[in-house]
Design goal:
By secondary structure, this protein is of the alpha/beta class. The protein has 17 helices and nine strands. Strand 8 (212-216), helix 8 (224-244) and strand 9 form a beta-alpha-beta unit.
Length: 635
């Protein structure tokens, strides 16, 4: 076992683990959603700071504990006696210089000499000379510092008063120090197998540390058969205890403190080697060193490493869950966007045929409405129509040439007014019918586009009644000056027609006497003829198609009306498409904003993950070092 290499690895493990635990505490404070370290972590971290490791030598009274320690260090240092010797705890530490001192429970100290060790630490001396006056203070332990090469820095061998002593204070002292033990050397002898009190104590020790080395002293005083019998029986007893804890059963190692001391103090090297071999310390030394290094290298670090790994695993799981949640949210946002787009596109594709059919249907209806204009205008000029009724009624009232003259100047305008009024009614009726058609295509689009989308991101438009929608669209798309179109034509038509009619009637009346019945009838006939010519001319001008043209004036108006209505329908469809695209753009914008928010959150957790990954990697390195330490100890 390479002790230098082992010491380096143990130091590296302890230092690295301390740094990792400090980093864990700092990182846990950076993010509120990271759980704080628990009490187990805090305790393990605090224990790790303690660089003192006590290897406690214990057992029943008069088992040879102090003699064993004296033999191991090669000096008759600790008080030994056939009666109960040790009354205080002795703590032996490696030091370049030799020194001795009392350490009191109040942390104060008193330097003593080597010769005074028995005075303050031996029960025999206390019985003979009485308890030393210490000014009311109580001794915690007696510190013995001297060169002990096999003890690493911070490792102490602790000699305790025996168990089962008549002095209850002795057992209390031992019990207190066991709670601080990193490892224990439990001393037995061949006089009797392990007794019940020892079993109880061993169980208490196992609650503190699993690192117990069992040795049986005074080997030189007993025959081999007796020794083997007692060792076998004691190992059976220990096997039962350890099996209940699922621990590997320990061995008991025989040793002779007497022969070991002879080996340490022999002036002759050959005799010293013989005594060393007879002592059995070779096996004990190897196990003692391994027990010490296991305690120093693994006892506290294992606990700290375990709680650190558990905590980091818990944090890594949380961070991983948060990242997965962000990615799931991003996926859901993208999915909602794609579903919204797909739903609108599918609805549009599915219903575009319906809209196309509806458009064609509406266009046919508007075309039929527009085509009806010529028939209705014909009816205006028919001899059963209101225009003729006005003309005939006015002519029937002529009783003189003066009446005829006056009628010639007023009748054309009256007829013009009536035609204009008739046209207003026709145009208003046309507009109403066309508007109704437009409202139908609008309602159809509302159903297809508006009700067809029901995504997670709803865009609520103001609700409008059917009549409000019709008014909006007719104002927006049917800005046709129908009345003015015909009115302008009538104004330009009746000016010259009125003048011509007046001139024709004047010529007819110029050579006619007034007042006779024959003359009145002639006047009426002439006026009727001229009015008929005028109305016929008016009708012809409105309904006949001039050469080089496709439409009459009324036909041109009806065609313009059809084109305007068709254009209005197409504009309405295009406008609705643009509106849907705007809704899709808005949906995309909102999804992108949500995606950006989630990406920012994801980036934050990725940064957190990066920091914790470093500590995870550090822990992996420390686990590797621990395995190397175990490998060295097992070699």
């Amino acid at each position: 076992m390479n002790q230098n290499e082992l010491n380096k690895k143990i130091t590296s493990l302890q230092t690295g683990l301390s740094n990792v635990m400090n980093n864990i505490e700092s990182l846990s404070d950076e993010e509120k959603q990271i759980p704080k370290t628990d009490m187990d972590f805090d305790i393990a971290k605090e224990i790790l700071k303690d660089k003192e490791y006590n290897v406690v030598v214990c057992g029943e009274v008069k088992k040879g504990k102090s003699s064993l320690i004296n033999a191991i260090i090669g000096q008759n240092l600790l008080p030994v006696d056939s009666d109960i010797a040790t009354s205080q705890v002795f703590r032996i530490s490696n030091s370049q210089t030799e020194s001795y001192k009392l350490v009191f429970t109040d942390k104060t100290e008193k330097v003593i000499s080597r010769e005074e060790l028995s005075k303050y630490g031996s029960q025999v001396d206390a019985n003979i000379n009485g308890t030393q006056e210490l000014g009311g203070k109580s001794i915690s332990y007696i510190q013995v510092s001297l060169p002990v090469g096999f003890l690493s820095e911070g490792v102490n061998i602790v000699d305790t008063p025996g168990l089962g002593s008549l002095y209850k204070s002795h057992e209390k002292i031992t019990q207190n120090y066991i709670s601080k033990a990193a490892a224990v050397v439990f001393v037995l002898d061949y006089a009797n197998p392990i007794v019940e009190q020892e079993l109880i104590f061993i169980n208490r020790v196992l609650d503190i540390t699993p690192y117990i080395l069992f040795v049986i002293t005074k080997t030189d005083r007993y025959e081999e058969e007796v020794r083997n019998k007692i060792i076998t029986r004691n190992e059976e007893i220990l096997r039962e205890i350890y099996s209940k804890r699922n621990l590997k059963a320990p061995r008991i190692y025989p040793i002779s403190s007497t022969n070991l001391m002879k080996a340490r103090t022999a002036g002759n090297k050959i005799l010293g080697m013989a005594s060393y071999h007879q002592s059995g310390y070779n096996d004990v030394e190897n196990l003692l060193m391994r027990t010490i290094y296991r305690a120093v290298g693994l006892l506290r670090t294992d606990n700290a490493l375990s709680v650190s790994v558990n905590y980091v695993n818990k944090v890594n799981k949380l961070v991983s869950d948060m990242l997965q949640s962000c990615m799931d949210d991003q996926k859901n946002i993208q999915q909602r966007l794609e579903e919204g787009k797909k739903r609108l596109q599918e609805n549009f594709k599915e219903d575009s045929g319906e809209i196309g059919r509806k458009r064609n249907e509406i266009v046919r209806e508007v075309s039929a409405i527009c085509n009806s204009v010529s028939n209705r205008v014909n009816q205006v000029f028919s001899q059963t129509g209101e225009v003729w009724n006005i003309a005939l009624s006015s002519i029937d009232n002529i009783s003189s040439s003066d009446d005829a003259t006056k009628l010639c100047s007023s009748l054309p305008q009256a007829i013009s007014n009536e035609v204009a009024a008739q046209w207003d009614r026709i145009s208003e009726d046309l507009q109403t019918q066309v508007y109704a058609c437009l409202s139908e295509i609008n309602v159809t689009m509302d159903h297809v586009y508006c009700e067809g989308f029901n995504g997670s991101y709803s865009l609520n438009a103001p609700q409008m009644t059917k009549s409000e929608k019709v008014n909006v669209f007719t104002r927006g798309f049917m800005g046709l000056s129908m009345g003015s179109a015909i009115g302008g034509f009538l104004g330009s038509f009746f000016g010259p027609i009125g003048t011509a009619v007046g001139a024709g009637l004047g010529a007819a009346l110029g050579g006619t006497a007034t007042g006779t019945t024959a003359n009145i009838d002639f006047i009426k006939s002439s006026v009727k003829k001229e009015i008929l010519n005028m109305i016929t001319k008016m009708r012809s001008d409105l309904l006949d198609v001039p050469g080089g043209s496709r439409f009459s004036k009324v036909g041109n108006f009806a065609n313009n009306l059809l084109n305007s209505a068709t254009s209005a329908i197409d504009d309405m469809i295009d406008s609705r498409k643009r509106q849907i695209q705007e809704e899709l753009d808005e949906l995309t914008r909102r999804c992108q904003m949500d995606m950006q928010t989630k990406q920012q959150e994801k980036n934050k957790w990725l940064e957190v993950q990066g920091k914790w990954n470093k500590e995870t990697e550090h822990l992996r390195e420390l686990i590797t070092i621990r395995k190397e330490i175990v490998q060295i100890l097992n070699d």
